[in-house]
Design brief:
heterodimer; A: 89 residues; alpha+beta; 2 helices; B: two-stranded antiparallel ribbon
Chain lengths: 89, 148
Amino acid sequence: MRIPCPYCGLRSHDEFVYYGDATVRRPDASTADAENRFVDYVYVRENPAGQHRELWFHQGGCHEWLVVTRDTRTHAFAAAESARAGGTR
Amino acid sequence: VPCVVTFGAGHFYISQSDKGGLVFGGSIDMYNSYAQRGNLPTVEEVCEEGIALMPCLSRLRVLRSWGGIMDMSMDGSPIIDHTSVEGLFLNAGWCYGGFKATPASGWCFAHLIATGEMHTVGKAYRLDRFATGRLVDERGAGARPNLH
């Protein structure tokens, strides 16, 4: 599997560190149900068979955090962009 | 190789077929996948672990490889529990284990279904451990997401 890094081009996936689902958002800690929402935030994932937006860190390259869209059935990449540009935090 | 040998310092197991071929396996991809095809960097890592255990393996040639799907849980340990739906029980997330744990886990699962109470041997594998913080650190690698 080769990941299309927007800065380095197609690179072997073992240059990258995987960090999972890029769509989860840290919940607001001040809300009444914050504890349950934090459990979901840390432990509950959709794990779809198909398109998956996910975080990869290019440790062996440009050191950029990327948001990559990959089909988990075929490993076909639909998009790869900087996490900073996408504002995923 | 007269038995299944497990290399606990890494994640590797090996046995030998009656025809003499060695059957070995190990690490996971570490990313979500339903492709069932593995990848070459992981093949390399599994071979490295095998050679660390048995240096004589370095002279052999790989005939074929296989990749499947592993049901990983967030702390790397299985879940055996009842659910909020009456009559629906959960026995999943076998991660690194499975076959060798089948007799004991089957016994615990049957005990749970028959009595409604978890057997003492399996009581750590509750589904709500992720909410209560009583995670299982089976491998000693840390019981948190993205390590398994």
